[in-house]
Design a protein that fits this description.
The complex is a heterodimer of chains A (281) and B (281). Chain A has a six-stranded mixed sheet with strand order 7-8-9-5-10-11, with helices on both faces. A three-stranded antiparallel sheet of chain A has the order 4-1-6, covered by helices on one side. In chain A, strands 2-3 form a two-stranded antiparallel ribbon. Chain A has helices spanning 70-77, 105-115, 123-126, 133-143, 149-162, 179-191, 209-226, 237-243, 261-266, 271-280, and strands at residues 9-18, 33-34, 37-38, 44-54, 59-64, 85-90, 116-119, 197-201, 229-233, 246-251, 254-260. In chain A, helix 4 packs parallel to helix 6 (179-191) and helix 6 packs parallel to helix 7. Chain A has ten helices and eleven strands. Chain B is an alpha/beta fold. Chain B is 28% helix and 18% strand. Chain B contains seven helices and twelve strands. In chain B, strand 11 (250-254) and strand 12 form a beta hairpin. In chain B, helix 1 crosses helix 2 (48-57). The termini of chain B are far apart. The chains are: A alpha/beta (281), B alpha/beta (281). The A-B interface holds A 105-106, 109, 128, 131-132, 134-135, 138-139, 142-143, 147-150, 152-153, 171 and B 132, 141, 145-147, 149-150, 152-153, 156-157, 159-161, 225-228. Bound molecules: adenosine-5'-triphosphate, magnesium ion and zinc ion. Magnesium ion is lined by residues 70-71, 121, 202 of chain A. Chain B: It comes from Robertmurraya siralis. Chain B: InterPro entries: PhnJ (IPR010306). Chain B: Pfam families: PhnJ (PF06007).
């Protein structure tokens, strides 16, 4: 990675609060806050001035304790949630010159359908459980402008094959699948439109260890093969260690530390990170 | 004529409110306009949406025809006709060409409509995306953003399941290149009749409290794929056993005496007219 490289995704001062805020907590920096929660009005400052870049072909890991705002960040980047303030730029959209959060919801849909793929922590949010698995993949292809059934069926089959879903089960609905299989269908769906940017939110959480390992292997090999950039959220440092080139550590909605993954694991600076790293050893 | 009721059953204010919604529907072809669906002396789901449109529009000089699945004599059609003629005294007819106002369930008449006529279709489920997206708030957004992947996805699923588009009726259409619309449960055979029709076509859903419209000469295209084109039912080599017509929608029946499959016109008044004009053999 050089200084000249243009980031695929650049996020600047992203803020997301749940709740209106009050005079006591305004700005999310006050003594009425317990962690990132206002005791007076109940507002949660889920993301506070989050900034980072993701470079081509890079896997950026995000770790942090439960409730630190990781999923909220991912939802904002995929436009599932509206940000309170902040900017995001994607090099594949308008030369990276337009703040995505200022675009119309129709444009945001376009960006999501053509430039991004996402795997949700909860497969219920990422899949239509009653539609066929291949239909779930076709949904994203149709949204990206495809209108040829034969082409979509063969692309879907190829992708399901890649994530090791047996071809003869492609017309089955994900509701019949195990958790690991559902995550793999989500991955296939997310990859279907060749997105330069993939957002993965706790892809392996809740899966048993052997399935976890196979999903992680899959992501690793797909990433190498396709050269996509990935933002990978996990509260599990083991997953981060295995996949991420660089890592951000989040606490109470803020990025408290960032750097090369090896560096963070070997020489954590912040007390929270130190605790996290020690618990891994 | 029963004069204990106001002309056409409703008070003038109610009729005006329905007509106002109808005007809006005509101004935005294919867009579902909410209206305050009224209590009726027939149960919701039995054509109350269509009936309210008919009652709001009918004038003393109108000639009314009511059909239910191609038949002027079904119990439903007869009851609706009775209610309207009892409270208005207007003339009723079975001849499509003589009617100025035609209320229909599940069919568009075979006789081409003219610009002097209004066709009112009864609609059970106005939302073409409902199976794909259960939430009304969400489907509203999808329409607003012209995001119709879901409509094509439902057709894709049918192709995966049955090897072809299996919509027996209510095959979705794109109106005026803008809104995807449920044409009501008319057979696919009738879909092309909606395109550039000379008559005003109004659709009313009583239970769901929606009206929508296809104004005269509006472009109406049935959804399909590049490699799975929309096709109306084809009755190749078949003809009506009564009147002999070939290019009409035929019902398939089993002759109880001979156990043979036979075909006859679904549009019974058209069948009779044909028979009369040819002269009984
Ligand atoms: N829709 C919502 N409405 C209100 N508060 C929310 C909402 N979603 C998340 N929050 C709050 O925002 C904070 C951050 O939640 P988030 O889901 O982003 O955490 P996370 O880092 O992904 O946690 P986990 O590791 O458990 O998945 C939490 O305090 C949560 O209660
Ligand atoms: Mg989370
Ligand atoms: Zn507050």
């Amino acid at each position: 990675m050089t200084d000249f490289e243009v980031p695929v995704l650049s996020v600047k001062n992203l803020n997301k609060q749940y709740g209106p805020g009050c005079l006591k907590c305004r700005g999310g920096e006050s003594s009425s806050l317990v962690k990132n929660y206002c005791q007076v009005c109940g507002t949660v400052y889920a993301c506070r001035n989050v900034s980072f870049d993701v470079f081509p072909g890079e896997v950026l890991g995000i770790v942090g304790e439960s409730g630190s705002g990781k999923s909220t960040l991912m939802q904002c980047l995929y436009f599932d949630q509206e940000v309170t303030s902040g900017e995001a730029y994607v090099s594949d959209y308008e030369n990276g010159e337009k703040n995505l959060f200022q675009e119309s919801s129709q444009q945001q849909r376009y960006i999501r359908n053509h430039i991004m793929g996402k795997v949700y922590q909860n497969p219920l949010l990422g899949l239509r459980m009653n539609f066929s698995s291949i239909g779930n993949i076709a949904e994203k292809l149709i949204a990206a402008g495809n209108n040829h059934v034969g082409m979509m069926e063969s692309r879907g089959t190829e992708l399901l094959n890649k994530v090791h879903i047996p071809v003869h089960r492609r017309k089955e609905a994900p509701k019949n699948f195990s958790g690991g299989m559902q995550q793999r269908v989500q991955i296939a769906k997310a990859l279907s439109n060749h997105p330069p940017l993939l957002l993965l939110d706790e892809v392996t959480t809740g899966l048993d260890l052997s399935v976890q390992a196979s999903v992680l292997d899959l992501i690793k090999s797909l990433q190498r093969e396709l050269g996509i950039s990935i933002v990978l959220v996990s509260h599990d440092l083991g997953v981060i260690r295995m996949l991420a080139d660089r890592t951000l550590v989040m606490l109470e909605g803020k990025v408290i530390e960032q750097g090369l993954t090896d560096q963070i694991l070997e020489d954590p600076q912040q007390p929270y990170t130190q605790q996290l790293v020690h618990s891994l050893l | 004529m029963n004069t204990t009721y106001n002309f056409a059953f409703f008070d003038e204010g109610s009729k005006r409110e329905i007509r106002r919604a109808t005007l809006k529907a005509i101004a935005i072809p294919g867009y579902q306009v909410p209206f305050a669906s009224r209590e009726m002396p027939i149960g919701r789901g039995w054509g109350t949406g269509g009936l309210q449109l008919t009652l709001s529009l009918i004038g003393m000089k109108d000639v009314l025809k009511v059909i239910d699945q191609g038949s002027d004599e079904s119990v439903n059609a007869v009851n609706i006709k009775k209610l309207v003629s009892n409270t208005t005294g207007v003339e009723v007819t079975e001849h499509t060409s003589k009617a100025t106002l035609i209320q229909s369930r599940h069919r568009i008449p075979e006789v081409p409509l003219t610009k002097e006529q209004i066709l009112v279709l009864q609609v059970p489920l106005p939302e073409p995306l409902r199976y794909y997206e259960p939430s009304e708030t969400e489907t509203k957004k999808l329409h607003a953003e012209k995001e119709y992947s879901g409509a094509w996805l439902m057709l894709f699923e049918q192709i995966m399941k049955y090897g072809g588009m299996a919509t027996g009726a209510d095959h979705p259409v794109l109106v005026h290149d803008r809104y995807v619309m449920a044409p009501s449960p008319i057979p696919r055979f009738d879909n092309p009749k909606m395109n550039a029709n000379e008559a005003l076509i109004l659709l009313g859903a009583g239970r769901e409290k929606k009206v929508y419209a296809v104004p005269p000469y509006t472009k109406v295209v049935s959804l399909d794929f590049e490699d799975y084109l929309f096709q109306a039912e084809i009755f190749a080599d078949k003809h009506c056993r009564i009147c002999g017509q070939t290019d009409v929608f035929l019902d398939e029946l089993v002759d109880e005496l001979t156990d043979e499959t036979v075909y006859q016109c679904n549009d019974t008044s058209n069948c009779l007219e044909k028979l009369n004009s040819v002269g009984v053999k």
